[in-house]
Amino acid sequence: MTVKANGFLQGCLPEELKKVLRSVASELGDVIDDMDSIQVVPLKGAMTNEVYQINWPLNDKRDLFRKVLVRIYGEGVDLFFNRDDEVQTFECISKHGQGPRLLGRFSDGRVEEFIHARTLSAADLRDPDVSALIASKLREFHNLEMPGPKNVLLWNRIRNWLKEARSLCILKDAKEFRLDALEEEICVLEEELTRDDQAIGFCHNDLQYGNIMMDEETRSITIIDYEYASYNPVAYDIANHFCEMAANYHTETPHILDYGAYPGMFCALCRGPT
């Protein structure tokens, strides 16, 4: 068994997770006779959670395996988003058929359908053909009917993050990052960018390449990880995705954007999906 370095899966699976996996297996028509037969493979790339591919042998075919994904919730992320809201969003999107199915839940995480697709790279976002596929899928996402109020959350979320930053920063750092000036800048941006005719939709709000998967055979796109998803101006979600085209999180300086990679005027998302 491959195990998690920090001890969550060190040596054996937690009893609660074992129970959930047995239940999931049963619903899928499988039986897990021996927990030692389960393979646990850490997956790279997640930023706010830890994710693992869980495999168990099929009942009558020991050389074939069922695959599911186990997501362990990260610690301290409640500063950035509400986990209960994220779980509700995941469940609803799953029911809409727009993401992996929710297979089971436990106190520290959940079990999801394993998507047989590859995660995109930074370079993929700038491929015109891939960009067109993302544009089409993003339009479907923006048109999702999600429960709850459809109010724009962008500005309150930024202000809440600024409040947290002020509480965590020492005076020297607060001055260096000009935190006192940011409140005024937020107000200016909100006034300048809020329009009555603005299209409001359900936005992902974190559409970087690690949150987009593509099936190589069918070329179908799946958008994953909805921690920051909420109703917002559709234009904001597209603009944020443009900024992500300038990012590469697999470098030694992931926080520095390369604006030379920013999309040109003929980007597929600018043209809109066909």
TrEMBL record:
Transmembrane segments: none
Signal peptide coordinates: none
Descriptive protein name: Choline kinase
One Pfam family per UniProt: Choline_kinase
InterPro entries for this protein: Kinase-like_dom_sf
Family: Belongs to the choline/ethanolamine kinase family.
Gene3D superfamilies: 3.90.1200.10
Higher taxonomy: Eukaryota, Viridiplantae, Streptophyta, Embryophyta, Tracheophyta
Organism: Eucalyptus globulus (Tasmanian blue gum)
